[in-house]
Amino acid sequence: MSAALDIKDIRAGYGAVNVLWDVSLSVEAGTTTAILGPNGAGKSTLLRAIMGLVTVSQGDIVVDSCARTGTSTWNMVNEGVVMVPEGRMVFRDMTVEDNLLMGAFPKRTRPRAQANLKTVYQRFPRLSERRRQLAGSLSGGEAQMLALGRGLMEEPRIFLVDEPSLGLAPVIVDEIFAGLRQLKEEGRTIVLVEQNTYKALSVADYVYLMQAGKIVMSQVAADVDVDHLHDLYFARKTGSEH
Q1: Beta bridge partners of 14
Q2: How far apart are the C-alpha atoms of 9 and 27, rounded to whole Å?
Q3: Alpha helices, DSSP H, located in 10-55
Q4: In this predicted model, which residue has the larger pLDDT, 16 or 46?
Q5: Is 190 helix (H, G, I), strand (E, B) or coil?
Q6: Range 56-62 average pLDDT
Q7: Considering the chain, what percentage of its residues have pLDDT values greater than 90?
Q8: Mean pLDDT, the chain, as a whole number?
């Protein structure tokens, strides 16, 4: 199976503050890769670096065997690399449908906007019911569905999803992860950043654990020892396992 995304020894951060230290990982096409770790581990910074939202000072980002380090965010989207950001970030003063149509703005997706809109409504019926409501009136779970739907409108080949369970009730988290599982079954390539280790492991094919801006564990999800994972997660143990 070919790698859709290769990250090779990247360093990145904010101004003079470096956050990522020689991070390397590989995401195979058609798989779900989970990136786990506590707050401040650098997970979101990694996704932002991939998307060109954070400057990469060292290393390479390779998409489908093509170097993309330093590529602008909009051109990453044009290449089919799409991120659903932490905290949803919907346009609160626009309707649900207009939010979704914003996802179809890239020129390559505009001809299929209405067909994709129909597909998103089938996937998330609650969004169809609320299509004329302002996004700011949605519950947290509905806003997360909207953010995912907006991302899907961009026809992602590589779908980066940042903390989809953050701040949501358990029943809504179950619904969100059922949607991610369906995307996985459709053969989507997904990179999932998540703090809920059990939920992440339930959908992942491969797992990376980050601590203090470094990868400290990488393993096939089915082989993960959860107790050992949590020891590393909470820094009760140190070391690297590949």
Answers
A1: 17
A2: 15
A3: 43-50
A4: 46
A5: strand
A6: 96
A7: 88
A8: 93
Largest distance between two CA atoms of the chain: 52
Residue 208: name the closest of 196, 222, 220, 195 by CA: 220
Structure tokens at 21: 């230290």
**Residues 120/101, Cβ–Cβ less than 8 Å:** no
Sheet holding 206-211: strands in order across? 81-84, 158-162, 189-194, 32-36, 206-211, 214-220
CB 198 within 8 A of CB 233: no
Tracing tokens 């000072």 back to the chain, one arrives at 57
User: Which pLDDT score, from 0 to 100, does residue 235 have?
Assistant: 74
Q: pTM of the prediction?
A: 0.92
Q: What angle do CA 58, 1, 83 make, to 5 degrees?
A: 50
Strand, helix or coil for residue 149: helix
pLDDT at residue number 239 = 55
Please write the tens of the pLDDT for every residue from 127-180.
999 999 999 999 999 999 999 999 999 999 999 999 999 999 999 999 999 999
- DSSP per position, 212-233: TTEEEEEEEGGG--HHHHHHHH
Could you tell me how far CA 239 lies from the centroid of its own chain? 26
CA 125 to chain centre: 22
Tokens 């020891």 belong to 231
